[in-house]
Automatic annotation (TrEMBL):
Residues 246-432 form the Major facilitator superfamily (MFS) profile domain. The keyword Cell membrane applies. It is a multi-pass membrane protein. GO terms for molecular function: transmembrane transporter activity. It comes from the Bacteria. This is MFS transporter. SUPFAM superfamilies: MFS general substrate transporter. Its main location: membrane. Residues 1-23 are annotated as: Disordered. The chain crosses the membrane at residues 44-68, 74-95, 107-125, 202-219, 247-271, 283-304, 311-329, 335-357, 369-393, 399-418. The keyword NAD does not apply.
Length: 432
């Protein structure tokens, strides 16, 4: 559950003025990864996210365990988890159009309330003994429909809660919440499943939504939240992005890297079992090291006020180097260390791309640009997982890691070599 609305000045002309006329004061006052927490609206939202994100990953873990108990089939589990992503994959960019036409705070109150209701329904079905696989799939699809508008709204809303100079910090802290929740949620789920079963996990998640809903009730964005009337549709947003290097470059890089490098759910189990000849403990160690690195990477980006094109190139190259080191690792210890480095670089890259898009997208287009970002980041995962599966079957996980490393290096080369003329109405046109 990430993010927040459109901030005061348009991030093209307005950001340039802020970065130049107030630079001495800004540099002195805006240091530190946690500087976004000085904003009371962001603090409220951040606190709600900490509780809700952990609940979300807790429920995902519990659903996996429950479906395996009901079906004893990994294929059924994969189907249950996949159906929830279909609505966003098909209609995600149009959710951004909804976000661009509505007050983001009001929209989030609606989507988070619906999400809480769906979580409560799953809790009630599980408590009554009626949480069948078809029922779980139906709830996952419904949640996917809600996320069509919820995801871009959450991503776009963060820019209304902090000054532009603190946006990198805010996005990095959101990344810390999400990546930390990937560790905390499953750990808490494991403890609850062992002691009380899966039903309490669904109860905890349903209640956790209250933290975000209460936060949204009390949040008052630092900007008015009023944005120019949205220009027509998704095609207009694609045309808008195509004409601006600071938008199409991170989208292109993320599409390439997301397709071939962000497939750890496919790679790590095979790497742990077949290549490193380990068991569940080995897989858990590798996943944990990657997660720790992702938290560190998200925190590191918070030190940067404005992302630049060389930063994107460096992060992509470092991500590729981490994957290459993992492919070369001869044993469990070296693979774990390489994955720690990989996690740092990977989520530096992700957070830099996201920050760049939100800083430079006009408020009238921000929801749709973020929706396109979600599509290229998350939407490429199913296709990438299939491609990675084929590569693993043909050449093993090390081959797939090398392919991912190559995609990162190609993305870095694009960032370093591709230049476009500055757009006439943008003061911060180049990321250099």
């Amino acid at each position: 559950m990430p993010s927040l609305s459109a901030t005061g000045p348009a991030p093209e002309a307005g950001l340039a003025h802020d970065a130049s006329s107030t630079r001495p004061q800004v540099v002195a006052a805006h240091r530190g990864t946690f500087r976004a927490l000085r904003s009371r609206p962001f603090r409220l939202y951040f606190a709600g996210q900490v509780a809700s994100a952990s609940g979300t990953f807790l429920q995902q873990t519990a659903i996996g365990w429950l479906v395996l108990q009901l079906t004893h089939s990994a294929g059924s589990l994969g189907l249950v988890l996949a159906v929830g992503g279909i609505p966003s994959l098909l209609f995600g960019p149009w959710g951004g159009a909804i976000a661009d036409r509505m007050d983001l705070r009001r929209l989030l109150l609606i989507t988070q309330t619906l999400s809480a209701a769906l979580a409560g329904l799953l809790w009630a079905l599980a408590a009554a003994g009626h949480a069948s696989v078809p029922a779980i799939m139906a709830i996952n699809v419904a949640a996917g429909v809600v996320s069509i508008a919820d995801s871009p709204a959450r991503q776009a809303f963060v820019s209304a809660l902090v000054p532009p100079d603190d946006l990198a910090s805010a996005i990095s802290l959101n990344g810390v919440v999400m990546n930390g929740a990937r560790v905390v949620g499953p750990a808490l789920a494991g403890a609850l499943i062992v002691t009380a079963g899966t039903t309490p996990c669904f109860a905890v998640n349903a209640v956790s939504y209250l933290a975000v809903i209460v936060a949204l009730i009390f949040v008052r964005p630092i900007s008015s939240g009023r944005r120019p009337a949205a220009a027509s549709g998704v095609v207009a947003a694609l045309q808008y992005a195509r004409g601006r290097q600071q938008l199409w470059l991170p989208l292109t890089m993320m599409a390439l890297v997301g397709l071939l490098a962000f497939n750890f759910s496919v790679l790590l189990p095979v790497l742990a079992s077949d290549t490193l000849h380990g068991g569940g403990g080995t897989y858990s160690l590798l996943s944990t090291m990657l997660s720790i690195g992702s938290v560190a990477g998200s925190l590191a980006v918070g030190l940067i006020r404005h992302p630049r094109r060389p930063y994107l190139a460096a992060a992509a190259a470092a991500f590729g180097a981490g994957l290459a080191l993992t492919a070369l690792a001869p044993g469990v210890a070296t693979a774990a260390a390489a994955l720690l480095v990989t996690g740092v670089a990977a989520f530096c890259f992700v957070t830099l791309c996201s920050t760049t898009l939100q800083l430079h997208a006009s408020p009238a287009f921000r929801g749709r640009i973020v929706a396109i970002w979600v599509l290229v980041y998350i939407g490429t995962t199913p296709i990438g997982s299939i491609l990675t599966g084929w590569i693993v079957a043909a050449g093993g996980p090390r081959a797939a890691l090398w392919v991912g490393a190559a995609s990162c290096l190609v993305a870095a080369a694009i960032a370093l070599r591709v230049h476009t003329p500055p757009h006439p109405d943008a003061a911060l046109t180049d990321l250099a």
